[in-house]
Write a structure and sequence with these properties.
CATH topology of the largest domain: atp-gated p2x4 ion channel fold
Low-confidence stretches: none
Keywords: ATP-binding, Cell membrane, Disulfide bond, Glycoprotein, Ion channel, Ion transport, Ligand-gated ion channel, Lysosome, Membrane, Nucleotide-binding, Receptor, Transmembrane, Transmembrane helix, Transport
Pfam families: P2X_receptor
Number of strands: 14
CATH architecture of the largest domain: Sandwich
Catalytic activity: K(+)(in) = K(+)(out); Ca(2+)(in) = Ca(2+)(out); Na(+)(in) = Na(+)(out)
Structural class: alpha+beta
CATH superfamily of the largest domain: atp-gated p2x4 ion channel domain
GO cellular component, one term: plasma membrane
Largest sheet: 8 strands, mixed
InterPro entries: P2X4_purnocptor, P2X_extracellular_dom_sf, P2X_purnocptor, P2X_receptor, P2X_RECEPTOR_CS
Number of domains: 3
Radius of gyration: 37 Å
Number of helices: 9
Shape: elongated
Length: about 375
């Protein structure tokens, strides 16, 4: 019986004192020959079709550097019992006036007018309802409180005698905001007709190539009258808000109630071996906050801000605004390519090396899968002893 030491010794002897060299064997077999050519043809198709034609493996590439500025236009009219007849323009509904690669457009609002600092009843809920002063803790302020409790229990709405609800009194900006009911339909439902001008400048540093999405053939007169359309006018940089939301397969009026986040994607894929006029942007639209019926907790997009005033007596007051709206994020991406000999030679060398796969595959089939495998092995390998 052969021991481990003996087998290990033979293996070491073979490793040190035996040498193998390739031997070329010509096998006249239609099956093997056809299979070999098919594999080589597939590799050749991959190298030429995928690497060089589709992926442009002969080019050096660079990623885009970009800057974006925006401008919104449009007016809306509202007529409510609280505010009366009012016109809303860009200064009212674009917050802040300038953003970094994004713009927020207010579409719905809850306004609390003439707030002053003082004492008033807190909004009723399970933590603020009370029966007596003993239920209210002086100095207490909850996470969702509008102010600090004074320790008194007061009637929530004295103007309605039938309403006996009592809540803890708070020191806060009074009257406190009631945001339980979001206005429906949206307060600025006409916002779907507002337009957004996007000015995008790009730069490919490696090739020192610059361009912008307002193409050289666009005139001032054309820019004043055009609106983007994917089929009829795909290079106009002015977008109607309703069209963008619709292109993302959403309903603008539904989205305007509680707000959301939209993505405007600008793709610059440029082949700089071709004329620069063929390097043009491609626009796509997508809703990013991805609201669906299965996830209805804390939907949309909103925030609060206030406008402060001081009367003749020096008393401060404010108008509190809870703004719902759509934030448009402008995302620019892409790459440019240009012929370079180095990636060309690297991909040619890689392609030639792949042809060895055909030989390996055919050897496996011939030596291990075919009926005459022992015969082929005998012809493939020749053992020579050193006498």
């Amino acid at each position: 019986m052969e021991t481990c030491g003996t087998s290990c010794g033979k293996a070491a002897y073979s490793f040190l004192f035996e040498y193998d060299t390739p031997r070329i064997v010509l096998i006249r077999s239609r099956k093997v020959g056809l299979m070999n050519r098919l594999v080589q043809l597939a590799i050749l198709g991959y190298v030429i079709g995928w690497v060089f034609v589709w992926q442009k493996g002969y080019q050096e590439t660079d990623s885009v550097v970009s800057s974006v500025t925006t401008k919104v236009k449009g007016v809306a009219v509202t007529n409510t019992s609280q505010l009366g007849l009012r016109i809303w323009d860009v200064a009212d509904y674009v917050i802040p006036p300038q953003g970094e690669n994004s713009v927020f457009i207010m579409t719905n609002v809850i306004i609390t007018l003439n707030q002053t600092q003082g004492r008033c009843p807190e909004l009723p809920d399970k933590t603020t309802r009370c029966q007596s002063d003993a239920d209210c803790e002086e100095g207490y302020s909850g996470i969702h409180s509008n102010g600090v409790q004074t320790g008194r229990c007061v009637v929530y709405n004295p103007a309605e005698p039938a309403n006996k609800t009592k809540t803890c009194e708070v020191f806060a900006w009074c009257p406190v905001e009631d945001d339980e009911k979001v206005p429906q339909p949206a307060f600025l439902k006409g916002a779907e007709n507002f337009t957004l001008l996007v000015k995008n400048n790009i730069w490919y540093p490696k090739f020192n190539f610059t361009k912008r999405n307002i193409l050289p053939n666009i005139s001032k007169m054309y820019l004043k009258n055009c609106t983007y359309h994917a089929v009829t006018d795909s290079f106009c940089p002015i977008f109607r808000l309703g069209d963008m939301v619709e292109a993302a397969r959403n309903n603008f009026q539904e989205m305007a109630v509680e707000g959301g986040v939209m993505g405007l994607q600008i793709k610059w894929n440029c082949d700089l071996d071709k004329p620069a006029s063929r390097c043009v942007p491609k626009y796509t639209f997508r809703r990013i906050d991805n609201k669906d019926s299965a996830h209805t907790v804390s939907p949309g997009y909103n925030f609060r801000f206030a406008k402060y005033y001081k009367n003749a007596d020096g008393e401060d007051s404010r108008t509190l605004i809870k703004a719902y709206g759509i934030r448009f994020d402008i995302m620019v991406f892409g790459k440019a390519g240009k012929f370079n000999i180095i990636p060309t030679m690297i991909n040619i060398g890689s392609g030639l090396a792949l042809f060895g796969v055909a030989t390996v595959l055919c050897d496996i089939i011939v030596l291990y899968c075919m009926k005459k495998k022992y015969y082929y092995r005998e012809k493939k390998y020749k053992y020579v002893e050193d006498y």
